[in-house]
Design brief:
Blueprint lengths: L11 H18 L9 H20 L4 H27 L5 H32 L2
Helix pairs in contact: 1-2, 1-4, 2-3, 3-4
Amino acid sequence: MIEFDFSYRKLNVYQLSKQLVKDIYSIVESFPKTEVFGLGDQMRRAVISVPSNIAEGTSKVSPKEQFHFLEIAYGSLMEIMCQLEISFDLGYINQDQLQQSGEKIVMIYKMLSSMQSALKSRIQGNHL
């Protein structure tokens, strides 16, 4: 592990979103081979975007920029939820997988929303 302790690593939302990455990668492993470069690939890209944008956002000084990266993470989170629902509809995942992943997505969503609300207050207070 890298010695330097970056601030994003301490965020619960970052840690939970990394867990979601592992879950989605595990789920995609069981997809039919015809989906390796289709839905599965899209899901992997979307789920990696969540912790990546959280981490990148923490490196920004401006609250507006931080907010922007959280918006991107949120968009990717909704993309994953949609793709999980499609995976369920296609019979690629079962109800339990959908439920467990959906619960993590809801928790991440709530954390991102809280962070966005705090940033919105800072933006409005500073008139940036």
